Amino acid sequence: MITHRGGCHCGRVRFEVTAPAKIDVSDCNCSICSKAGYLHLVVPAERFKLVSGADALTTYTFNTGTAKHRFCSVCGVKSFYVPRSHPDGFSVNARCLDAGTVEAMNVVKTNGREWEKQYPKGRGEYR
Prior knowledge:
Elements: E1 2-7, E2 14-19, E3 22-28, H1 31-36, E4 39-44, E5 48-52, E6 57-60, E7 68-72, E8 80-82, E9 89-93, E10 104-110, H2 115-118
Parallel strand pairs: 3-10
Antiparallel strand pairs: 1-2, 2-5, 3-4, 4-9, 6-7, 7-8, 8-9
């Protein structure tokens, strides 16, 4: 495990996440992820740290209201959020990680359009 750093486009929101150098990410086809091109690196809450920008974040929710989509109010980038599949963790957008620490990225397709079929237990497992 190593520390990856990242953030939004303007740099106001900065975070650290502990994950392997070779990461598995999910490419979800749900309505919001497919439009945004989000690549999910999902981690338990204890492996995520918001370093700066809490004051710049705004939250968007829809459908069940479980997911807390956190956007930078300055540049509009969603660099991380609390996902419905892992409400006790965080999903970091792998596209928002700083260059230099990711050695390899394995992209796995996720069927978020049929959420209940993708997550029959009502939530996802951590890898």
